[in-house]
Structure formats: C-alpha cells, structure tokens
Write a structure and sequence with these properties.
Elements: H1 2-45, E1 67-70, H2 76-90, E2 100-104, E3 107-109, E4 116-119, E5 124-128, E6 139-146, E7 150-153, E8 158-161, E9 168-177, E10 187-189, E11 198-204, E12 207-209, H3 227-232
Parallel strand pairs: 1-2, 2-5, 3-6, 4-6, 5-9, 6-9, 9-11, 10-12
Antiparallel strand pairs: 7-8
Length: 261
C-alpha cells in the first residue's frame, strides 16, 4: 500500500513539474518577440568598434583674452594695434597683475615698407611658433621688438635706466631690423635687467644692442660673456660702446643680470 501511495505521489509530482515546464515555455514564447527587438535595438545603439572621436579644432583657439595668436595673413596694422595697446599698458606696469603672451604662427610679419615695430613691457612673452623648437627661422619679423630704458625722474626726462626692466621674454624667431628713425633705427634694443631671457633669436639686417644708448643715460650695462665670467661675477659696471653691440647673427640665451651691479 505504501509503495502504491509513493508511486502515485511521484506520478502526480512529475505531472505538476511537466505542467510547470509547459507554462514556462509558453510564457517564454510570449516574451521572446518583445525581448529580441529590445536586444537588437541595444546592439544597434552600441557600435561594433569604438571609432575615433572627432574633436572640432580651430586655427585660432581661444586661450583667453591675454593670449594673442597672430597669423601672417593678418594686416600689419591690425597686429600693431594689438601689440601697441598691450605695450602702452605694460611698459610701466611693474607691479600690475596683467600677464600677456604674444604668439606668432610660422611666417613673415611686416615688410621693409610697412615694418612691425613694437616694445615689450612687463609680464609679456613674445614667441615664434615655428615647427622646430630649436630654430628661430620659422617666424620672421621685419621690424623691431624692443625694450628701452625707463626714465624714472622729472616726468620721464631723466634717470633713464634699464635696472627695473624685469619679467619679459623673447624667443624662437628672427628679427630683420627695419623701420623707426634716428637713433632708434640703429639697432634692435633689448635693454633689460634680470628675469628677461632672449632665447633662439636671430638678428639680421642690423644690430642688436643690450643697452639703450638713445636716452640721456646713465646708459650702463653689465653683460656676462661666458661661463668663466658668470662664475666670477663681474663687479665693474662699464658702458657698452655701440661699436661692440653689432650682432648680425645673434642666437643664444641671455641669463642673469644685464645692468649695473
């Protein structure tokens, strides 16, 4: 009797399991037409491979209002207006918060008839964006990129010195000296003191002077000429005669103090 009862229960359990399996298969068949399109839509949304993302670029990216990028196609008058506005603000702005970078894309700027002449004031970096980081030939400026003495007394009439001409730089370009008149036409002037490097600069067409001899003086400059002199640190301030400031090709780095000790 017990054996018969167990067999009956086992038969009933199997029937119930079979019915449950049929029910699950039926439900699965009902859900499958909906699930497959959903999976297909998801597969379509996800690409088979990860293509390279395209980022929009610009020939004149916006690095903020204090970074100026110049292009050779720009009129010289437009460039002059921009750099002169910055120069007039920065030449005497020794303790101001403003900072500027003037960057020149590869090419030629200015001409003999219409040169690009401007001054470099405090906290201003001027640099050529040539293809080679160690060659100044990618960018040529026909004109002047000058730093003059600051005349500190009598409303700019006396005590004209370069002792306070700090915090500016010039790099990676060629200056073909053109333009200006009188004494200012005689050379490209870089009358600076400390923290004012000149790197990879090629001067052609005229002279380079590290002393502004066009003002009333005192017109003194100290120029370390080599490692030995740098080590010994010259202790005497001597005027630089203009005949010794010629640099038909000047391509080096100026570091340390340039001015009286």
């Amino acid at each position: 009797m017990k054996v018969l009862l167990l067999r009956t229960l086992s038969y009933v359990a199997r029937r119930r399991m079979l019915a449950l399996a049929v029910l699950l298969c039926t439900m699965g068949g009902m859900l499958l037409p909906q699930a497959v399109p959903a999976r297909a839509a998801h597969a379509a949304a996800v690409p088979a491979s990860n293509p390279r993302v395209t980022i929009k670029t610009s020939d004149r990216p916006d690095f903020g209002p204090n970074v100026k990028i110049f292009d050779p196609s720009m009129p010289t008058s437009e460039i002059t207006a921009t750099v002169d506005a910055i120069s007039s603000q920065q030449v005497d702005n020794e303790m101001g918060p403003q900072r500027y970078a003037l960057l020149f894309k590869p090419g030629v700027y200015g001409t003999a008839a219409d040169p690009l002449d401007f001054q470099v004031g405090y906290y201003t970096e001027v640099a050529g964006l040539g293809a080679s980081p160690i060659s100044p030939t990618g960018v040529t400026i026909n004109g002047h990129v000058d730093v003059y003495n600051r005349c500190l007394d009598n409303n700019g009439a006396s005590n004209c010195i370069a002792l306070d001409n700090f915090w500016r730089s010039l790099s990676n370009l060629t200056i073909n000296v053109k333009g200006l008149s009188g004494c200012r036409a005689s050379a490209n002037f870089w009358a600076v003191s400390q923290a004012a490097p000149m790197r990879r600069v090629n001067i052609t067409g005229g002279n380079l002077t590290l002393q502004d001899y066009c003002t009333v003086g005192p017109q003194y400059a100290r120029v370390p000429l080599g490692p030995a002199e740098m080590d010994e640190k010259p202790s005497v301030s001597t005027p630089l005669p203009t005949s010794n400031t010629t640099a038909r090709r000047f391509s080096c780095r100026i570091e340390g103090s340039i001015g009286p000790t």
